[in-house]
Amino acid sequence: MDVSVSAPAREEGRGGIDRRAPPTRCAVITPALTKRATRGAPERRSPQSRLEEAVGLAAAIDLDVVYSATIPLSEIRPATFLGSGKVEELEGVVRAEAVDLVFFDAALSPVQQRNLEKAWSAKVVDRTALILEIFGMRARTKEGALQVELAHLNYQRSRLVRSWTHLERQRGGFGFLGGPGETQIEADRRLIGERIVRIEKELEQVKRTRGLHRASRKRVPYPIVALVGYTNAGKSTLFNRLTRAEVMAKDLLFATLDPTLRAVDLPHGTRIILSDTVGFISELPTQLVAAFRATLEEVLEADLILHVRDISHPDTDAQAADVSDVLEDLGVDPQPGGRVIEVWNKIDRLAPDEREQVENRAARGGAEAPVPVSALTGEGTDDLLGLIERRITAGRVTVSVTLAAEDGEGLGWLYRHGEVLERTTDEDGAIHVALRIPPDRAGLITRRFGARRVHPT
C-alpha cells in the first residue's frame, strides 16, 4: 500500500515506505494541545501516553524510531500546524538525526503536509496515512484488502485539493473540440472515482455473501459471541486460549485485521461461535470507520459482546471510553449488563496489591461485574466461559422430545438445533431427549416432531 500522498514523493517516484530496504529512520512528533487549543475540553490521555502509542504505531510498521517528542501547542497554525520557531527547531533535529520520514501524530491538511515536507526536506505522514499503511500490511483476505484500498483511495482523493500543484498542468484539447483539455488533477480525480465505484460494488457482493453466511448460521442456532476492544488489549490471545486456535497474536498494534470465527463448546455443552475483530483506536480515521463497518457487522449481529480491556495499561479507562464511543456509533449499548460483558485482561502483569484491588472491584460489580482474566496464563477463563454460558442460556426454555428408535435423522436434527441436556432410551427403543432452546424455536420443534411428541418441561 502506498502512503506517498505528497507532491514531492509523487514527483520523485519514491512511492511508499520501502520495506525491502533497511528500516526507515523515523521521527515521531505528537502535538499536545493545551486547554486553550481544545477550548477547555479535557484530554482523555496524558501527552506521554499518546506519544507511547504513536511510537507503537511506528513500530508496527517496522520504522526505526530515532527521535520522538511531544510538542505543547496552544494554537494550530493553518500553514504548518506548528509555530514557525518549532518548525525550525525540528528541522535541525531531522537533519542531525538523518531522518527520512516524520510521523506527525495528528490529522494534517494537504497544505500543512506539503509545507512541513518542504521545511524539513523529509517525507511527512500523518496519523491517517500511517494507520492506512498498517492496515494495508495486515489485510489477509480479499475483503480486508478491498476495504483498505477503498479507505486509501478516499484519503488520496482528499489530498488532490490544492496540494499537488504540479498537477495543475493541462492536457491538450482534441481536434475541433478546442478549449482547455482535462487537467492532470481532474484526470487523477476521475480515475480514483472510477476505482472507488468498482471497489464499492465488489464490497457490496462481499457484504451479500457475509449476509448469506449469517443467515445459514441462524438456521443452525449457534449464538454469536464477539470480542471487541482497544488494539493490543489481548483479544487474539484470548481468542486462541478459548478456541485453541492459532490466530496471529503479538504485542503489536493492529495485529488482527480480518475477522476470524471459530466454534467453542461451553462447559455444559452449549456451542457458540466466537468472533475476533479488528482492534479499535482513538481518533480512527473517518475513512476507515466507513470502510470497515462491514467487518464490524459480526458485532452488530452478536448475541453477546466481550469488551476486552488491558487492565494493566495506565490508560485503560480512556481506552474503554474510546471503545464505548465506537460501539455507540454502531448502535450498540456499550454498558455492561445488556449484551456486553467486560473482560479485564492481563491481570498477570499487575503487582500483587494492584491485582487484589482489581479483583475486589470486580467482586463488587454484582450482575454486571467484569471478569478478571489472563489470556496468557489462562487464569479466570473458566469463570468467563461459565458466565458466557449462563448469559446465553438465560431465558431459554426446556422441552422433552420423544423419538422412534429408527429416527436417527430426527435425533441429529435436535443436536444441531438445540442444547441436548439429557438423553434416555426405553426398553422398546423409544428415545427421550431433554432439550434447551430459545423461546422462538419452540414452534419449530413442535412443527418438526408434532405436539404429541414434544412436551414443555
From TrEMBL:
A Pfam family reported for this protein in Swiss-Prot or TrEMBL: GTP-bdg_M
Keyword annotations from UniProtKB, A to Z: Cytoplasm, GTP-binding, Magnesium, Metal-binding, Nucleotide-binding
Domain annotation Hflx-type G: ranges: 223-396
Gene Ontology cellular-component annotations: cytoplasm
Gene Ontology MF terms in the entry: GTP binding; GTPase activity; metal ion binding; ribosome binding
InterPro entries found in the cross-reference section: G_HFLX_dom, GTP-bd, GTP-bd_M, GTPase_HflX, GTPase_HflX_N, GTPase_HflX_N_sf, HflX_C, P-loop_NTPase
Chain positions recorded as GTP binding sites: 229-236, 254-258, 276-279, 345-348, 374-376
Cofactors, names only: Mg(2+)
Subcellular location: Cytoplasm
Keyword Cell division carried by entry: no
Region (Disordered): 1-22
Protein family per UniProt: Belongs to the TRAFAC class OBG-HflX-like GTPase superfamily. HflX GTPase family.
Subunit structure: Monomer. Associates with the 50S ribosomal subunit.
Official protein name in the record: GTPase HflX
Organism: Xanthobacter autotrophicus (strain ATCC BAA-1158 / Py2)
